[in-house]
Amino acid sequence: MGQSMTMVIDDATFCKVEVKPWLFAKRKGCRAIDINGCDKVEVYWDLFSARYGSGPEPLDGYYIALVVDREMVLLLGDLRKEAFRKTNSSSLGSSSVFLAKREHILSRSVYCTKARFRDNGRIHDIAIECETAGLVEPRLSVRIDEKMVLQVKRLAWKFRGNQTVLVDGLPVEIFWDVHNWLFGHVIGSAVFMFRTAMSVELSSNDSFSDLSPVSRWQTLKERKPQASLGFSLILYAWKNE
């Protein structure tokens, strides 16, 4: 069992690489891909010396690069010099921005992950817990760095909603949808979104602020993360019964 890296462009999968845990497994390489007749498009990766924490993403010692017609258009990781040397490409025309992250987490009771809410900010521990056993009314709690930032009581009536909290002085809006946990199929997932900023269009739209929490949540789910000026973390939480 290992990890995989998948590249998706315009909702179509163009590149998927399996990273095996074996000692002599190939963890670096390149692949040419065809995207609607564009100029030469290549994906380069080097995960040979990558160092991992508790999550699936490498912390350092790696690079993943997307090169179009010998121009670097996307570069992830800290081995920047190695990436440019390997690809023999020109420098980035502009800095890339981390817009969104999607993650699937599996647990019996407490769902944990890590996230950075601003560029060069520190990594925060996030823990989500839904308490149902022995309670007349289920309740939901969210902790960031072991500090309770959100608690929802009478969850059967508030299974969808949103609330803004402060993390490092930055407003972070938390949306939750736990309908599947309470009323749906046993294998259904709950969905959580941590969003650091609203899009210019939404934040300036008075009609959006007048919507109910449920309607706001549905509106945001239907919009693409690229519409935001901030960062969005989307979590799919699955019960491991």
Q: What this model shows, in words?
A:
This protein has five helices and 17 strands. It is mainly beta and 241 residues long. It folds into two domains: 3-87, no CATH class; 100-239. The protein has a five-stranded mixed sheet with strand order 9-17-16-15-14. Strand 1 (3-9) and strand 2 (12-19) form a beta hairpin. The protein starts with a strand and ends with a strand. It comes from Nymphaea colorata (pocket water lily). InterPro entries: DUF868_pln. This is DUF868 domain-containing protein.
Write the layout of secondary structure elements.
Layout: E1 3-9, E2 12-19, E3 28-33, E4 41-46, E5 51-52, E6 58-60, E7 63-68, E8 71-77, H1 80-87, E9 100-107, E10 110-115, E11 124-131, E12 139-144, E13 147-152, E14 160-167, E15 170-177, H2 179-182, E16 189-195, H3 200-203, H4 206-209, H5 213-222, E17 232-239
Parallel strand pairs: 9-17
Antiparallel strand pairs: 1-2, 3-4, 4-7, 5-6, 7-8, 10-11, 11-12, 12-13, 14-15, 15-16, 16-17
InterPro entries: DUF868_pln
Protein name: DUF868 domain-containing protein
Pfam family, one: DUF868
